[in-house]
Amino acid sequence: MSTQPAAHYDRVHEAWTLIMGEEFHYGHFATPTTALDVATGALTSEMLELAGIGEGDRVLDIGCGTGRQSCDLAEQLGAKVLGITTSASGVAAATALARSRGVDARFEQRDGTSNGLPDSSYDVVWALESSHLMRDRAGLLSESVRVLAPEGRLVLCDIIRKREIPFLEVRDRRHDFATLRAAFGDAHMEPLEDYASRLEALGMTVLEATDVSAETLPTFAAWRANVDAHTDTLTGLLGEQGVTDFVQATHVLEAFWNDGTLGYGILAATKASQ
Amino acid sequence: MTDQDKTLAVITQFLTRADKSTDDVSPTTGLYGDGLELDSLEAAELSAMLEDEFGNDPFSSGDELPQTVGDILAFYEVAAPA
Questions:
Q1: Taking CB atoms and an 8 Å limit, are B44 and A165 in contact across chains?
Q2: Which residue segment(s) compose the domain that B75 sits in?
Q3: Which of A117, A159, A173, A236 has a CA positioned 20 to 30 A from the CA of residue B73?
Q4: Which residues of B fall below an 8 Å CB-CB distance to A?
């Protein structure tokens, strides 16, 4: 579990809010000039539509980050939400957010790949851009399926790998990969089809598995525009090198999107009635 | 320092840089999975360090990737001039 110091968490949180907006995730852009907050809202809406969350539904938010999504689901849909993250600082921040908004969402420090929650105890498992940070993808999916109630739904969106990357190419592009790791953490991307096939092997019915790489591509330009708009503040929060590294990481990702190496997928699957 | 010691020194240097444990590294230690748990990027970084030091490396030179520390040691023992 992460022991990321709270002060560091707060700095990164503030910086990423300036860069990414209130929702810490990619946008689903109708056009390249769509505003970032509209695009991130659209991605959330896609997830909501697939999840079909109703009032009183029990929702498990895996990799809940700042808790913003969990609070929104509880507040706007009347869902009973448990957000889990491996970060103690994340739990503290999310709990404080829920308290400040007067929302009935709970947060606990748990690992999505071995969550320790009871079988069949959730109507919806929600994983928004968190799975790429969980190296044990099989564990994440099997645990998600285990805690889903019959007819429950898993909805997930994340960065995906769109082709095999041969070892020598990884070696040649290791500085690019290292740049990504420094900016975004220890990420491991898998093909969307692998998520789908793993879930089918666990008895789930995949309702949708859609590649939205083109729709998410403008995210990088939008993030860079926000860096340009807040350079001085971001330099104070992340340092000059930190800002430079982040911008470079967006260029690396954009190139990977454009050459078909990486992209973005969204998936929904449902558990059998019994 | 023997060739094997030099190779182990590079591996240890890499593990230290990667913030991984250098305890109990032996020829039978696996590079991936339950061993050193290298992912593809870390293997690429080790590959580059070995090439920088010795001019070639077992990750890039053969058909099959090395699986253990011993595979790396064996590559340089075979490659060394008689």
A1: no
A2: 3-79
A3: A173
A4: 39-41, 43-45, 47-48, 59-60, 65
The total number of structural domains in chain B stands at 1
Residues in A touching B40 (Cβ below 8 Å): 165, 167, 170
**The two three-digit tokens of residue A76, written as one number:** 């706007």
Do residue A167 and residue B48 have CB atoms under 8 angstroms apart? no
Chain B residues with CB under 8 Å of A174 CB are 41, 44-45, 48
CATH number at residue B15: 1.10.1200.10
Enter the ipTM.
0.75
> pLDDT, tens digit, for every residue of A6-39?
555 666 888 988 999 888 899 999 999 999 999 9
| The pair of three-digit structure tokens given for residue A70, joined into one six-digit string | 């969990």
Task: List chain A domain ranges.
Answer: 6-270
CATH architecture assigned to A6-270: 3-Layer(aba) Sandwich (3.40)
The pTM assigned to this predicted structure is 0.86
Beta bridge partners of A122: A148
Interface test with B, best of A132, A165, A170 (most B CBs within 10 A): A170
Return the residue matching tokens 């969350």: A53
DSSP state of B23: T
User: What residues does A264 pair with on adjacent strands?
Assistant: A159
